[in-house]
Amino acid sequence: MFDRSLIGFIGICCLPPIVLLYNLPNLSLQWIIIQSGIFSFGAGLLTYRLIPTISELTSTANLTGMDLNKKGNPKYSGKKIPESLGICVSVVYLVCVILFQLFQWFSFPETVQLSEYNAALTSICFMILLGFGDDVLNLRWRYKLVLPLFASLPLLVAYAGGTSVVVPDINFPVPLREWLGMTFDLGVFYRIYLLMLAIFCTNSINILAGINGLEVGQSVVIAISIIVHNLIELTISPNSQQHLFSLVLMIPFLFTAISLLFYNWYPSRVFVGDTFTYFSGMCFAVVAILCHFSKTLLLFFIPQILNFLYSTPQLFGVIPCPRHRVPKYNPTTDKMEAIPTNLTIINLLLMVTGPLSERKLCIYLLIFQGLCSCIGFGVRYFVAPYFF
Amino acid sequence: MFDRSLIGFIGICCLPPIVLLYNLPNLSLQWIIIQSGIFSFGAGLLTYRLIPTISELTSTANLTGMDLNKKGNPKYSGKKIPESLGICVSVVYLVCVILFQLFQWFSFPETVQLSEYNAALTSICFMILLGFGDDVLNLRWRYKLVLPLFASLPLLVAYAGGTSVVVPDINFPVPLREWLGMTFDLGVFYRIYLLMLAIFCTNSINILAGINGLEVGQSVVIAISIIVHNLIELTISPNSQQHLFSLVLMIPFLFTAISLLFYNWYPSRVFVGDTFTYFSGMCFAVVAILCHFSKTLLLFFIPQILNFLYSTPQLFGVIPCPRHRVPKYNPTTDKMEAIPTNLTIINLLLMVTGPLSERKLCIYLLIFQGLCSCIGFGVRYFVAPYFF
């Protein structure tokens, strides 16, 4: 359960936020964030305690799955693993966020923007409901694609920010700023872009999956990246309320997701289900939209974007697409082998590295996710300032 | 499916709101309500179309139940009925309300109070999630009691109204107004009262159940009563925004619930599940709290209050409580017979009237619900003014 590399991974992940939090110049902000951390730690513990109980319930309800990547391995083969444990994580998360809302509202009524906070809660909660419904009822694709759209509408209504974008200071091939001005109002197209972002986030995590620990692991890396970004921004300009808002939503997400990771890490004792992937995707979309850092968020989604682009021939039916696009497990070597016709970056990585054990494969993919986040930060803080 | 008495019941129910709407003096209000009606009619049609599809999915997912009140009847016995169709109704409801929010915000941005609207959506959505989770996972009682509490917290935070109550003008046994003043501030106790109200509403509909059509039927009667109350208030004072807000939430509820009633009416082809009872209870609590008519709502809950009070010995374990407290079905006479040890008003009614067919029993209970609403209106508009 407490795999050494998992502990190391979590340790490395948590270091940057702690250092940044420690160096935060504004002490009252620091105090709010610490309180949120304490709440979230409690939520994480509760999740950790509840998962075994809830996994019994999901097993009884026949929400179980076979581990495809262990077929033929006598140690694990034929075991039914409880599915959809995302429901436990996400409900604890919602309760934690609601309680913190109550607490904040008693302590600092002026800092809470209720309409946005509640829009965020509505969208996330609706997405959890959809994900859980999908796990239980096995919805068809057309429903799956339409419902995230509705789930993100409350966000768009509550979105109080502008719809203008800053025009990059580029003179080649055309002098953009001379043509368009400093800022350019995209109007309703900006809202359509935000809608597409929400749909992309919820689905892109769902299709980079199938390896023990990968869904939750990548979500943890992205959550950490967002938290680090928020803390950097708060260090630069302590009055940016929206980054505090993002932190208050991301910190409980991080702690509850880590609790789930302990159970979902190789060899998985629970599966997370679409409930979790949809929930986490929506959480990221929500904070990026309401806190106005959608472009930065996309920098943390580089592996998901690559995976999506690489998958397009299968997703749009040019190449036949099996139900599960996981690599092939070889029980003799206990290693995963690439299936080159399954166009995911998981198989791509295996084609580069050769066969890997499932545990190592997940670790490599998470390291890749982390490296991409580092590149993202580089682009955001060193390259982007040249153009904006 | 289109039972004559069901059509009559719906017809009688819909008459008062139509007359009141027609006589509404403020034409722009009338127009908003008609638009909401058109939206909701579409939502009702969609629900009607979707229920067969979704009931296949719930059957496949093993969410089915036996109809206890037809045991031994060769025509129905042994048939498995799809359960939890509340999920279909409630998701369509949410989508409709969200779309109407978007539409309203484009048309009349100043009339929408976003924070309250979104708090309402959060609470309702969380309650649906809990209800569906309960149907799938069969949660234990302690979870059931705690979670509605959390689901209603966003409401309390968003509740912007006062916490004072008008003191009744009563001089016996003590001159209340002399002692307490015209109004009395209950402070935090008022919020606790609202919390208790939400928990009561969600659970009280759930325990007055077990007869084909009863759960949905009583919800329809209560929804109509609320709509009539809102329309009367809007006729008296056309500026009471909160009653418009309540209508915008209640009208789609009414239409989607009626669609479900067609399938749930005797003999039921689908069951509604805890998803529906929790969802409907929360909808009522939400509008009553945010629109400040909690006392009036309790007048429409008279049968539920009586049933709760009559049930207390079993609910608190003084008398043993079986899992289902329904009356006994007699296959020879095709009638329901009272079980006097099951303390519900359903059995009480059967003890008064003697054995009844399940269909008639439901109709009588709904007539009783309707009569209680009439008494409620009498108290609200003719008795209460003497004291306030």
UniProtKB/TrEMBL annotation, chains A, B:
Cofactor: Mg(2+)
Family in the record: Belongs to the glycosyltransferase 4 family.
Enzyme Commission number, as recorded: 2.7.8.15
Record key words, sorted: Endoplasmic reticulum, Glycosyltransferase, Magnesium, Membrane, Metal-binding, Transferase, Transmembrane, Transmembrane helix
Primary role: UDP-N-acetylglucosamine--dolichyl-phosphate N-acetylglucosaminephosphotransferase that operates in the biosynthetic pathway of dolichol-linked oligosaccharides, the glycan precursors employed in protein asparagine (N)-glycosylation. The assembly of dolichol-linked oligosaccharides begins on the cytosolic side of the endoplasmic reticulum membrane and finishes in its lumen. The sequential addition of sugars to dolichol pyrophosphate produces dolichol-linked oligosaccharides containing fourteen sugars, including two GlcNAcs, nine mannoses and three glucoses.
EC top class, as a word: transferase
Keyword match Repeat: no
UniProt main location, coarse: endoplasmic reticulum
GO BP terms: dolichol-linked oligosaccharide biosynthetic process
InterPro entries: Glycosyl_transferase_4, GPT
Alphabetized CDD domains for the sequence: GT_GPT_euk (cd06855)
Protein known as: UDP-N-acetylglucosamine--dolichyl-phosphate N-acetylglucosaminephosphotransferase
Transmembrane segments: 7-25, 31-51, 85-105, 117-133, 145-168, 188-209, 244-266, 278-302, 338-356, 363-383
Compartments in which it is found: Endoplasmic reticulum membrane
Catalytic activity: a di-trans,poly-cis-dolichyl phosphate + UDP-N-acetyl-alpha-D-glucosamine = an N-acetyl-alpha-D-glucosaminyl-diphospho-di-trans,poly-cis-dolichol + UMP
Membrane topology: Multi-pass membrane protein
CC annotations in GO: endoplasmic reticulum membrane; membrane
One GO molecular-function entry: UDP-N-acetylglucosamine-dolichyl-phosphate N-acetylglucosaminephosphotransferase activity
Pfam families given in the database record: Glycos_transf_4 (PF00953)
Pathway: Protein modification; protein glycosylation
